[in-house]
Amino acid sequence: MQPAKELLDRVKRGELVAGMLATDHVWTDLVELCQRAGLDYLIVDMEHGPHGPELVAEVCATGRRLNFPVLIRPRANDYSNLRLAIDLGCCGFLLASVETAADLDAVRDAIFMPPRGRRRPGGVGNRWVENYRYPAWKETVEDHFLVMPQIETKLGMENLAAIAAHEVTSVLAVGPYDLSAELGICGVMDDPKLLGALEQIRAAAVAAGKPTWMIGDAKNLVERGYNFFCIGEPSWMLVAAAKQALAAARGVAAPPQAGYAGK
Q1: CA-CA distance, 18 to 221, in Å (whole number)?
Q2: 210, 169 contact by CB (below 8 A)
Q3: What is the average per-residue pLDDT within 143-162?
Q4: What is the reported pTM?
Q5: Between 20 and 30 A from 203 (CA), which of 155, 188, 227, 245?
Q6: What digits encode the pLDDT tens for the residues 60-77?
């Protein structure tokens, strides 16, 4: 699973690593388009998106063929959904609303084979390995599979240290919109309560020796010190680009575009 290893290595070196989170529309050519645009990864959102397993499996396979990281945000974080998601051939998870370290124990069971977990490999995810003996699974898949738990609730904030330190956590992530709602300031992304919570998350990641991940305006995130981030959702970005092009043609200011907040 070289794409995942290379991605995380670049993040740890402090390079700018940017990608997309595709929720509304997903198609196989999106992988190549992301690569041609200079992006570094794609996340397929199965939590909120309507995408079936056949399509997602082909998107993951396209990433594997292009050596381009494709991650999945699973529909839920239970064992059966996680096992299906890894069988589709992704090289990592963005996990919505992780609240305790115990939540990540189920993740460990789903991505690790015995004796460390209880996964039974299947599906097109098998194509990552050259043989089906355990050393191949461990060295090719398990050792480099990216796990990014999103902190989105007050309970998650209370358990930051344990979530960040968990053995399967590769990167500590945040869902800023849902977290703002939990804090009673839904959608107010510059509120001091949210900004303070984001700094707590980053501090917990640093203490655990883990990078952080965030979604939002790329320039703003870089100015705030993030080097691993998501620039938005493709459909929302298409709408924004169309509005800007029309405004330029009409000689007027483009209307403000509400960016995807990264639930």
Answers
A1: 11
A2: yes
A3: 97
A4: 0.94
A5: 188
A6: 999 999 999 999 999 999
Q: Give me 30's structure tokens.
A: 């999106």
What is the C-alpha to C-alpha distance for residues 90 and 60, in angstroms, rounded to an integer?
5
E-only strand ranges, the chain: 17-22, 41-45, 70-73, 92-95, 146-151, 172-174, 212-215, 228-230
Least confident of 102-106, 232-236, 259-263: 259-263
Which structure tokens are listed for 180? Answer: 């703002």
- Name the 3-class secondary structure at 149: strand
Assign domain 2-234 to its CATH superfamily.
Phosphoenolpyruvate-binding domains (3.20.20.60)
- Distances 93 to 11, 14, 26, 96, 187 between C-alpha atoms, Å: 16, 21, 17, 9, 25
d(CA 220, CA 236): 18
pLDDT tens figures, 171-217: 999 999 999 999 999 999 999 999 999 999 999 999 999 999 999 99
Q: Where exactly are the structural domains of the chain?
A: 2-234
* C-alpha atoms less than 13 angstroms from C-alpha of 36 in its C-beta half-sphere: 5
Per DSSP, the three-state class of 245 is: helix
Q: Please tell me the predicted confidence (pLDDT) of residue 1.
A: 80
Residues 6+ apart with CB under 8 A from 77: 95, 96, 97, 98, 103, 106, 107
> Backbone dihedral region of 257: left (phi > 0), alpha (psi from -120 to 50 degrees) or beta?
beta
